[in-house]
Amino acid sequence: MLISPFCSSADYHGIRLPSRPKSPKVNLSLYYETLCPVSKEFIVNDLVKVFKEDLISIVNLRLVPWGNAHIIDPNKTIICQHGSDECFLNSIEACAIKIWPDVKQHFKFIECVERQASDRRQIGENTWKSCCRKLKLSPKPVLDCYNSGHERELLLRYADETNHLNPPHTYVLWVVVDNQPLFEDFKNFVTYVCKAYKGHLKLKACKSLPQEINLAEKANSIQPVCNVSEAKKKHGSPTASWMHRVMEPPA
């Protein structure tokens, strides 16, 4: 007796019907830097919708903490647009993503850090360690990652990914849905996610959304907050003292 490869034990008259294929998720990528005001505001006030409205069930969310940082040869010194504090927090958040790969876990940490970092006077180890205490996470693996220099390796990977975006990013915040940058319309990311989703799940967040989106029109009226050219123009070729400070955590 020949048995269909799709059949095994009983579900329906002794035959298990083929399982329904999993719904394809939408890729949502956030290219940001920790101290850019628009990055902080978006993470704290907008990106949380992915979890509050259960969009995470249809989304592969990735956070890439590099933004407008750049590398100075020959020593591959990392320069960040908002100074050494930003380099430090970029490193901490890169370590958190690596240590806690579950996006629900590392997003909670990053959202907490960004909320704390809104007050520039509080930036330093206490910023992220207080988030560890709040979320009942051990700070040790993050500190080990940072002190071992592994954070630099992680940042250089993010740098390579960010620098190979197509089209290239020209400012931060840069939000991409299934390889399509949203330009200045990133706050409407839910609309783009819902329209890109081809699965069968019906989410409340995807109801009553605009029927048409004109991304080309949006791209022509860009008003960037943290601009790539301005970042490089601001720092240029750093002095020896700046190069020494840039990757060190604040005292």
TrEMBL record:
Protein name, UniProt field: Gamma-interferon-inducible lysosomal thiol reductase
GO terms assigned for molecular function: oxidoreductase activity, acting on a sulfur group of donors, disulfide as acceptor
Organism: Fagus sylvatica
Domain of life: Eukaryota
The keyword Glycoprotein belongs to this UniProt entry's keyword annotation: yes
Similarity comment: Belongs to the GILT family.
Residue ranges of the TM segments: none
PANTHER family from the UniProt entry: GAMMA-INTERFERON INDUCIBLE LYSOSOMAL THIOL REDUCTASE GILT (PTHR13234), SAPOSIN A-TYPE DOMAIN-CONTAINING PROTEIN (PTHR13234:SF64)
InterPro entries: Interferon-induced_GILT
Annotated keywords: Glycoprotein
